[in-house]
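thread from #wetlab-drylab

HS: before we spend reagent money on co-crystallization trials with iron/sulfur cluster, can we at least see a predicted complex? here's what I'd submit
DV: go for it
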Amino acid sequence: MYSVKEIFYTLQGEGTHSGRPAVFVRFAGCNLWSGREQDRQSAVCSFCDTDFVGTNGVNGGQFASPQDLAIKAAEIGQLLQPVEGKDQTASPNSPKGMPLLVVLTGGEPLLQVDEPLIAALKRVGFYVAVESNGTISAPPSLDWICISPKIGSQIVQRAGNELKVVFGQKGLDLPSFLDWDFEHFYLQPMDGEDIDHLTGETIAYCKAHPQWKLSLQSHKILDIP
Ligand code: SF4
């Protein structure tokens, strides 16, 4: 059983795949915060801007099998369309060069994502990416691993495709990340009242340390639903 807060079709707003159409599957629950405001200050991660509690979002719910969830995500991405007299078959967004991206996010998706789900998503035609806080090992069959570490947590997943560090966290030691095994190192200014100041500081840090690249939350800037 998979507990999913919401599923929606949009553009990836952050990191290497920024601008790429994607189905987002937001899993319910996180291991670094309960999601309740009264627990925020005592949580390991206290700057979260995402509602991941429950299954009551758009297209959310409990999915009994990997296939059920994969088919729902495929329908939302228009990878599957009913054909008269037949089972569902591949259609407009099917791979023709670049497969459609599905981003497994949360909450902390790796509390629930497993190999059978990844296999089911690939069977319907997705390129499968995850956005995780790095406290749980990622299944090896994922196509893309994005890790966003939170200061104060125990990071076990120190390899992947992109490391995305939220700039503005207290106690950041950025040089300590550089021997982790990632292709891309991103700094993303923390959203909130201080965003303008933090964006300026992030730009200055990247210019002085060119191993790092700036990541902006373009979906928020442009208000992409
Ligand atoms: S780890 Fe991610 S989902 Fe969990 S509380 Fe922090 S920002 Fe939110």
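DV: The chain has a mean pLDDT of 93.
HS: ok that's useful, forwarding to the group
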